[in-house]
């Protein structure tokens, strides 16, 4: 278990993506469209990212020529709302699926320069399609891009964020068959796809240490899998996958039971976190359990701001209470207007009639 301190970041600038569907290049392009890019970074920019910038400028009715920016020492200003001085968490399906880090490190180093210039961090939490060996706080540990190990705590301002990854791949049988088929057709260029165990791991020692190191105070919990009582989409159309993988339903349930155990341990040993965010697959919902917000994010390039999310939820709950109180008062008022104390007769059903009076002799 490790603690990562992100200095000079406000807790209001914490963003979460509910997985990026393994499209790591698309993810970084989306992030960089919210950031400033200076000249020395442009010189080494990936051709695909240059093309992305050209398309993005064209959508806004502008032209983009990178040579002009470099020649005139200009800074590319973001066309979307700023995400500088921020922490960005990606919960599962990070796109780190390979068995080799060399596939990613050059790309990550390039984007790390842009993030560092903007004082923005990207924290990857492993998911159902990611290689767990890359998530150890060491293999991918650049200044502003980190793939964190399970039970890592990220401290931002006055908030403690517990990160726990892992989820069983629902299409694992198909992935193995597909990889074998492709590699048989082209043995000289093998498909590099991790197909091992990606499920969450229950480690009470690491969990207790994380809680103790935070003085029994966890504010946010970010996981790939949700507790068993939460809404999720893993078991939707599960029958289609069971035809080729008869154990998949039980393994998915085990994942959720592990998260339920973690949830119980957190409640019994420390304060109640404000929010628990998880990868909801196809879901984009929230619910409240044990005074905690549970937020399911869809597995796509879509983000939320945690601070705003909590404020919006509290405001919605406040409005619901006001509406319930107004309905109750309206109902009571209507009942009072309908009540006639002179002609009001209480009818007693036959089954509940008063017993007959019995005369007693004295």
Structure write-up:
- The protein is an alpha/beta fold and 362 residues long.
- The protein is 37% helix and 16% strand.
- The protein has helices spanning 24-32, 39-43, 47-59, 66-71, 102-117, 172-185, 204-213, 238-242, 248-269, 306-338, and strands spanning 3-6, 14-17, 87-91, 121-125, 145-148, 152-156, 159-164, 220-223, 275-281, 285-289, 292-298, 303-305.
- The strands form two sheets. The chain has a seven-stranded mixed β-sheet with strand order 1-6-7-8-9-11-10, with helices on one face. The chain has a five-stranded mixed β-sheet with strand order 5-4-3-2-12.
- The longest helix has 33 residues, at 306-338.
- The termini are far apart.
- Mean pLDDT is 83; it is low at 350-362.
Give descriptors for this structure.
362 residues, alpha/beta, seven-stranded mixed β-sheet, five-stranded mixed β-sheet, 10 helices, globular, disordered C terminus
């Amino acid at each position: 278990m490790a603690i990562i301190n992100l200095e000079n970041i406000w807790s209001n600038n914490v963003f979460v993506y509910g997985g990026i569907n393994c499209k790591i290049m698309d993810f970084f392009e989306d992030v960089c469209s919210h950031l400033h890019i200076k000249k020395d970074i442009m010189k080494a920019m990936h051709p695909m990212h240059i093309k992305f910038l050209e398309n993005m400028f064209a959508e806004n009715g502008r032209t983009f020529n990178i040579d002009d920016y470099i020649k005139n020492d200009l800074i590319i200003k973001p066309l979307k709302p700023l995400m500088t001085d921020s922490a960005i968490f990606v919960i599962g399906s990070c796109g780190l699926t390979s068995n080799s880090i060399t596939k990613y490190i050059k790309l990550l180093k390039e984007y790390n320069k842009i993030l560092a210039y903007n004082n923005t961090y990207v924290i990857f939490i492993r998911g159902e399609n990611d290689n767990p060996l890359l998530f150890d706080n060491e293999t991918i540990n650049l200044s502003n891009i980190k793939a964190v190990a399970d039970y890592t705590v990220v401290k931002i301002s006055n908030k403690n964020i517990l990160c726990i990854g892992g989820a069983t791949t629902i299409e694992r049988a198909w992935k193995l068959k597909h990889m074998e088929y492709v590699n048989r057709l082209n043995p000289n260029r093998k498909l590099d796809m991790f197909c091992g165990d990606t499920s969450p791991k229950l480690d009470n020692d690491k969990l207790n240490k994380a809680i103790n190191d935070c003085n029994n105070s966890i504010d946010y919990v970010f996981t790939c899998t949700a507790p068993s009582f939460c809404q999720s989409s893993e078991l939707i159309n599960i029958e289609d996958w069971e035809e080729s993988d008869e154990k998949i339903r039980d393994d998915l349930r085990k994942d959720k039971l592990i998260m339920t155990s973690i949830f119980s341990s957190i409640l019994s040993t420390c304060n109640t976190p404000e929010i628990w965010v998880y990868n909801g697959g196809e879901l984009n919902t929230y619910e409240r359990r044990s005074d905690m917000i549970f937020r399911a994010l869809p597995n796509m390039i879509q983000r939320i701001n945690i601070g705003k999310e909590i404020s919006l939820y509290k405001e919605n709950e406040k409005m619901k209470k006001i509406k319930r109180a107004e309905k109750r008062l309206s109902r009571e008022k209507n009942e009072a207007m309908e009540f006639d104390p002179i002609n009001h007769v209480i009818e007693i059903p036959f089954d509940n009639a008063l017993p007959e009076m019995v005369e007693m002799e004295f």
